Amino acid sequence: MDRHDIQAVSERIDVLLDEVQRRAEPEITLKVEELVRAVLSLHGAALGQLLSLLSQEQVQQLVDDDVVAGLLLLHDLHPDDVATRIQHALDSVRPYLGSHAGGIDYLGLDDDGVVHLRLQGSCDGCPGSTATVRLTVENAVLDAAPEAVAVDVAGMVETQQTLLTIQPFRTHRDGWHQLDLVTPPGQVQHLTIGGLDVLVANLAGTLFAYRNNCPVCSSALHHGVLDSDRLTCPRCTAAYDVRLAGRALAPEGAPPLEALPLLPEGSGWKVAIPGVQPA
């Protein structure tokens, strides 16, 4: 069973429990909930005993696997505290956020379960970057800290909402699609994900994802020229900085590319397509 199968099983359990709560008689529902708690308690005790037999180095090797780490979090057995987990999560996503997220400071978790972050720099001039930062940071924080119920990012340019409200007990995978990438360094790759044309560029080993559409002339960009960090549209010759959140280099004042959050997951990758649920 791979990690995608594990995720599917987890989601299926949620669906079944929800169905029991909606359809079963109250006394049956209570028995099912008691059964689930008993099984979790048994598994948690066994995991705790197992961890006590391992060295600190062996435990860390286990924690490096995100599936095992999630299980340890479920049973409150993860060796790292919430601040350490969130800091590590933010460190892991910084390379994929673009220039606007060169610095994200963790300010703390308050008594209401809200994680407070401060974004250094500005997203001015790259409207697409706000969605990129929101989705990527939200996903990273929720995976690392299930204790959190919301994320407040100070310094984020917003037109409507500034608080990332996160419902507890959800899968946190809305809009994220798994994919395998074979983009060589210095080249671009064209994919269709969730009905959306996506362009992935490999800049010296760091991957960036954008909607495959020139904001100036609406042409596809995967036939354009990628020269270092500069991507030039094959039709209108508009140019964009792929590394710096897709900002327009020419013509002056042109809108930026629409950035899509792209993160490593296990041996593959996942990309967020806003408003499109994975199949």
Order of helices and strands: HHHHHEEHEEEEEEEEEEEEE
Strand percent estimate: 25-35%
- Mean pLDDT score: 81
Radius of gyration: 21 Å
Helix segment tally: 6
The backbone outline, from C-alpha atoms, is elongated
Second rung of CATH, namely the architecture of the largest domain: 3-layer Sandwich
How many discrete domains? 3
- The total strand number stands at 15
Strand order of the largest sheet: 1-2-3-4
CATH superfamily of the largest domain: Rieske [2Fe-2S] iron-sulphur domain
CATH-defined topology of the largest domain = Rieske Iron-sulfur Protein
- Give the N-to-C terminal Cα separation: 19 Å
Work out the helicity level.
Answer: 25-40%
Which structural class should the secondary elements be placed in?
A: alpha+beta
Low-confidence stretches: 124-128, 157-174
CATH class of the largest domain: Mainly Beta
The main β sheet shows up as: 4 strands, mixed
